[in-house]
Recover the amino acids of this structure.
């Protein structure tokens, strides 16, 4: 499928933001008083809001995005919007109380953390529930989104928080996230459209006459479906991007955390690790969309 820049930025940025919000709600230690609290709250809320705003640019009519909130009974996109708004409102109250009184209410923080988890989960389910894309339809997809949100959120929290955090936790979170992603890649490499019962015969509705093959393209030029749903990526290009994602998204952050655990390097180096991981996740998320095969591609001769 076509990897839209707005959606890639949305899933990476909002995931990191809500991952940071999740940890703050659980009481992640932050030193420095009200000023530091304001900075880290702006970082978490800013990343989450920036991601959500970016997602609207993929819509045909961004000004009508608010209407999607009414479809919460059947749409994961609508549920995501509601969960995100509710979480950000609770987080704003939590941050205000924190900055004014210095206290971090336990119950309110727990609600903020729960909302952050639900927001990232609903985002992942927009893709994981699609039967027409076998690479996405797996319980591993929500785990990948949650794992990367936690890993990138921990790096941001430990960097912006200016508080010495135990690096082994960060190494564990980042390593676990990429272990899940590796399992996702292995499964995706074996997934086929036929596994979901999709074939050229079902796509065209002509299976009753036997095997179907494309004689001539149904269109003389591109259309919306061929642009958005029938994207192709070369294997060599995919391998390069996958290596880039692994090195920048996993190798560099873990190496920085190991160095910090063995030295007295300032915790601000965790921000370098966070930026590296987010850069790697942009490549990972590009592949997430570019390598996905939609059932509609069968109508255009793909097998």
């Amino acid at each position: 499928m076509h990897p839209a820049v707005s959606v890639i930025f949305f899933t990476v940025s909002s995931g990191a933001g809500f991952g940071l919000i999740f940890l703050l709600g659980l009481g992640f230690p932050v030193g420095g008083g009200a000023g530091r609290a304001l900075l880290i709250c702006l970082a978490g809320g800013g990343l989450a809001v920036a991601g959500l705003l970016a997602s609207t640019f993929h819509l045909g009519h961004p000004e009508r995005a608010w209407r999607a909130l009414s479809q919460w009974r059947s749409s994961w996109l609508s549920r995501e919007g509601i969960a995100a708004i509710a979480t950000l409102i609770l987080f704003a109250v939590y941050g205000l109380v924190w900055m004014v009184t210095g206290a971090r209410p336990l119950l309110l923080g727990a609600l903020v953390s729960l909302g952050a988890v639900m927001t990232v989960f609903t985002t992942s389910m927009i893709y994981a529930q699609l039967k027409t894309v076998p690479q996405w339809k797996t319980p591993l997809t929500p785990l990948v989104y949650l794992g990367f949100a936690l890993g990138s959120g921990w790096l941001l929290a430990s960097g912006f928080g200016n508080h010495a955090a135990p690096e082994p936790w960060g190494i564990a979170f980042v390593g676990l996230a990429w272990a899940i992603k590796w399992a996702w890649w292995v499964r995706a490499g074996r997934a086929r459209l036929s596994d979901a019962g999709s074939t050229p015969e079902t796509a065209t509705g002509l299976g009753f006459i036997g095997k179907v093959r494309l004689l001539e393209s149904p269109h003389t030029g591109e259309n919306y479906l061929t642009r958005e749903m029938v994207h192709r990526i070369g294997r060599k290009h995919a391998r390069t991007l996958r290596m880039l994602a692994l090195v920048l998204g996993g190798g560099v952050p873990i190496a920085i955390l190991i160095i910090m655990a063995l030295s007295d390097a300032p915790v601000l180096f965790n921000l370098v690790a966070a930026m590296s991981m987010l850069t790697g996740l942009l490549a990972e998320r590009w592949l997430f969309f570019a390598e996905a095969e939609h059932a509609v591609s069968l109508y255009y001769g793909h097998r």
Q: What stands out?
A: Residues 150 and 211 are 47 Å apart (CA to CA).
